[in-house]
């Protein structure tokens, strides 16, 4: 299976200020490598199809960073559309159908999460499959959990499982959402209501790189993985 991959790189990264005053968050470095390049590496290692990156805030730097390669760019210069709106705008580049999405502002150890999702994906039963992690293992995370993961693998709102920024989802139902600017949560709610939203748990380590102090936290995690 070779699904296309959407990497979300358009956000303003306000929680990462002042580092993001002059640099888009995906181009900040953890252990010498940009978050965006780390995300692209995961995609290539997992054998995904085409890779699409969206760009808005300081988007010229994203364009320059990716120039000359095979990564497609969905330009959101005119308006920041959030994850759901951004995914819908990128569909002509992604090709429609089921896609993978990945947030670049996280760092992983252990099995490649994109590969794990592809192995568990069952389009006959699932409209989305989210990568999750217990809240107490989610380094750098602020706030409560997002979902409950049932013994059947279905997800529901509330609980101690955190969405960790990586999923497979079908895209047809994006057409049902009227807003131009919206989160993927709106799409997931439709799928949860139909009993077709599923999750699996990442078995490695994970760190949210959302604030300046979490860069060191992520680098410590990566160093632990080397030892």
Please give a structural write-up.
The chain is α/β, with parallel strands linked by helices. The protein has one domain: Spore Coat Polysaccharide Biosynthesis Protein SpsA, Chain A (Alpha-Beta Complex). Helix content is 29%, strand content 24%. The protein has helices spanning 35-45, 59-66, 82-94, 113-120, 184-193, 212-226; strands at residues 5-7, 29-30, 33-34, 51-55, 72-75, 98-102, 106-108, 128-134, 147-149, 155-157, 161-170, 197-201, 206-208. α3 packs across α5 (184-193). It is globular. The model has no long low-confidence stretch (mean pLDDT 96).
Task: Briefly say what this structure is.
The chain is α/β, with parallel strands linked by helices and 227 residues long. Helices cover 29% and strands 24% of the residues. It is built from six helices and 13 strands.
């Amino acid at each position: 299976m070779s699904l296309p991959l959407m990497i979300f790189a358009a956000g303003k990264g306000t929680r990462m200020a002042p580092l993001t005053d002059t640099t888009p968050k995906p181009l900040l470095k953890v252990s010498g490598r940009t978050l965006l390049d780390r995300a692209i590496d995961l995609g290539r290692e997992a054998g995904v199809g085409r890779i699409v990156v969206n760009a808005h805030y300081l988007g010229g730097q994203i364009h320059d960073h990716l120039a000359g390669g095979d990564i497609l760019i969905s330009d959101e210069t005119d308006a920041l559309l959030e994850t759901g709106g951004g995914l819908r705008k990128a569909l002509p580049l992604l090709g429609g159908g089921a896609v993978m999405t990945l947030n670049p502002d996280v760092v992983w150890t252990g099995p490649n999460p994109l590969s794990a999702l592809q192995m568990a994906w069952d389009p006959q039963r699932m409209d989305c499959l989210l990568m999750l992690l217990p809240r107490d293992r989610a380094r750098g995370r602020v706030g409560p959990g997002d979902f409950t993961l049932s013994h059947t693998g279905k997800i529901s709102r509330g609980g101690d499982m955190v969405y960790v920024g990586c999923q497979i989802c079908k895209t047809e139902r994006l057409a049902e959402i009227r807003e131009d600017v919206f989160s993927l949560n709106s799409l997931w709610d439709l799928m949860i209501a139909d009993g077709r939203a599923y999750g699996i748990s990442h078995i490695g380590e994970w760190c949210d790189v959302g604030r300046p102090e979490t860069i060191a936290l992520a680098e410590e995690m990566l160093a632990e993985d080397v030892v």
